[in-house]
Known about the structure:
The chain is built from 12 helices and 4 strands; from the N terminus they run αααββββααααααααα. By secondary structure, the chain is α+β, with helices and mostly antiparallel strands. The protein has one domain (3-321). The longest helix has 40 residues, at 187-226. The chain starts with a helix and ends in a 13-residue tail after the last helix.
Amino acid sequence: MDSLDLLSITVAAFAQAIAYLFFLYELSQHYRSYVFGGNPQVARKRAIAFSVAVFALFLCVVLLVLQSIIILVVVLFVMAVLVRAIRLRFSLRCLERKEEELDGIKYIVCRSDVANAWYDYRGKIICVSSRLKEVLSEEELKAVIHHESGHAKHRKLGLFTSFIDYSWLYAVTGIALLITLLREISLISMLTILYLVFSEAAITLSATVISWVNEHECDREALLKSGLQPFMAALIKTYVYGSLRRYSSFIDNVKIKEAKEIIDVITASATPKQIYNTLLKYSWNFPKWILDLIINPFYYTHPPLPLRLALLMTYHTRIELGTPDKEQKGKPVH
């Protein structure tokens, strides 16, 4: 390979890195505008549109690179889908099902030690694990159910998010395969890997924002139907017990402070710098996916707890002002 080819790959690799950093900054601004801005509907459309543009751009770049090994990529992709399906099957399985109803919404209680709730798009039913139901009050459970019913209301956005999920999965498995095939250790191979890695980071970044917006929209539905304090408490308990998994049975109850006592912590966790750093960190989760295929075969589809609480506080303030979906004058609400 001559010096001209080396120069071309070098320029492409560093251009890809600069493009990623530029889109990281822009997406963090769009995302923060969505969380704290005065017009959530407009901000949502802009955040999703920009994320889709970034995703499509870098996905096309990756597909062009992978076209020479397309058959191998498809085989690896199918295997990755099967691994993910099996993992979800076991992590969200119902050992025993019981139908119940709350606030006019039917849902299924699944006997399970995992503290979680989810919306089954195929069965069009809300599922709540028995462990989560045990630790939530009736008002908190109502909030969780309304969040999951939000997924039914925003079904199109949810299905689009699933399409993005699998597109991401296809790209990352292809890049993992291509990097594996680059057996020769040379400057050219290192630059090629750098090019592919920053492409995948940009794809992960945009897919993450799209998925987070989807969850935030459902959070807004729960806030409107259940109120601020019950849903905040439900979210915190879900994150706490969910992170402990089976060991959550060792804890009887998690006490949640009043909403006004959490404001300072939320504000400190949702500054422009913190949002930028959070998206930077989460957009590089895919190397962990490659190394830890079975345990965590995906990027972070749900926003961090402080950012979810930040949107709830902002939207609750707009509701109190009587302008939940209207443009407000002045700076974003903090």
